[in-house]
Amino acid sequence: MNATRNEALEAWMVEHGHSSNSLAEAVNRALERLTGRPGGLDGSSIRAWKAGRVRWPKSATRKALENVTGLPASELGFVPRGRTSANPAASQEDPDMKRRALVGGLAAAAAAAAAPGTTVPRRIGMSDVDRLQQRFAEIIASDHRHGGQRGIEQRAAALADEALNLQNAGSATQRVRNNLYACAASFRSSAMWAAIDGRRYDDAKMHMREAQALAEMSGDQAIKFRIWSHAGAMYRHMGRPADAFAANDVARNLHITRHDPMFASLGLARQAAIHGAAQDRTGTRRTFDQAQEAMQRANPDDYRPVWLLAFYDQAELHSLALSAHLALGDYPTAEFHAHRCLAGLRPHMRRSQAITMTRLAHAQLAQDDAETATATAMKVPADAATQHARVSRMLQEFGAAIRAKAPKSDAAQAWTEHTRDAWRAAA
């Protein structure tokens, strides 16, 4: 019988930015915490799961995978032995589940029988960190779908506080405490980015200061890079290229960029965007080429944090080049990068798609192609057009530009009717 691909697992990995190797490493770490022994999975193991050659992993491996993903194995497309589908109702109850229920019941009974008033100090472990990291992955996924929303910012900030509260909830090793600080810094950096994306810059700077302090306590180079790189993007959006260069240079000078070309590539790509904002054509072209070269040197199977895997790829590199050339007034080149970005964007990058479509419309209008530009702008989803601060502002500027360029044209009339009808319905 031919194996059926595990599309549910593949979809989860794409949404959460995992390669086969990075998921194998995450499950191996979870296995070590469960069993005390390192796991032996590698990228080929995960590829066998995705291909359907392994339909029901061993019990310890399943439990480790469930800890990493926060989902039952059956919801990840795995099929228990003796079943013909992943539907739990299709066969008898999983014996491992029955055993766990029995053990859980015995443990509860033993706890109830203990002497009243007896308390056992809580031990904070890597399983607590894993649960926080899973929620961080959910924040990342929500940001790529919606972006800039105050609710995402508030939820990320609350989870940062939750990670810090765990520091005082019990005893822990220094490794666990460092990881808790890194989790808190990660959540704060997501709150910072949501505020930047929503053009709430005072809030973003407050989150930045918190995130920077937490990152220093964690010693985590990757999260330090993320925070300083975000700071560079924030100052670029604020029209302060000198500060943007200074912040981005902090990120680019961290030693992680010398160990992993993918981090070097992202730092260079954002540097190219800042050169564009500073009207430096030579610097933009040179730094974009360096970013492309660094990306080509990067090993795609190396372990990287979920936030980087979830968004940085060739499409994002073209997105940053689009931003740079649009700022330079090089509209044909900007349009080229916009099309390349849209062709490579992953389905979950809905926020990025809306931003890219809006920038493409501006590049087309600047080349006096009002009809094509209007058709492009009208493809931006109405919820993004009305609820995402950056997209909304750029589309308002697009409307002002088309009314100035061709006030009596069919394109201007079509845009007026579109904003009146589609936007009003979405508001």
Task: Detail the topology: elements first, then pairings.
Layout: H1 7-15, H2 20-35, H3 43-51, H4 59-69, H5 95-113, H6 126-145, H7 150-167, H8 174-197, H9 201-218, H10 221-237, H11 241-252, H12 256-259, H13 261-277, H14 281-297, H15 306-309, H16 314-328, H17 331-344, H18 350-366, H19 370-377, H20 382-387, H21 389-405, H22 410-426
Helix pairs in contact: 2-3, 2-4, 6-7, 6-8, 7-8, 8-9, 8-10, 9-10, 10-11, 10-13, 11-13, 13-14, 13-16, 14-16, 16-17, 16-18, 17-18, 18-19, 18-21, 19-22
Gap from first CA to last CA: 52 Å
Low-confidence stretches: 87-119
Main beta sheet strand tally, sense and closure: none
Elements, N to C (H/E):
HHHHHHHHHHHHHHHHHHHHHH
Q: Which bin fits the share of residues in helices? A: over 70%
Average pLDDT value?
85
Please tally the β strands and state the result.
0
Instruction: Give me the secondary-structure category.
Output: mainly alpha
User: Looking at the chains present, what oligomeric state does this protein adopt?
Assistant: single chain
Strand content: under 5%
Kindly provide the radius of gyration, computed on alpha-carbon positions and rounded to a whole number of angstroms: 24 Å
Number of helices: 22
Morphology? globular
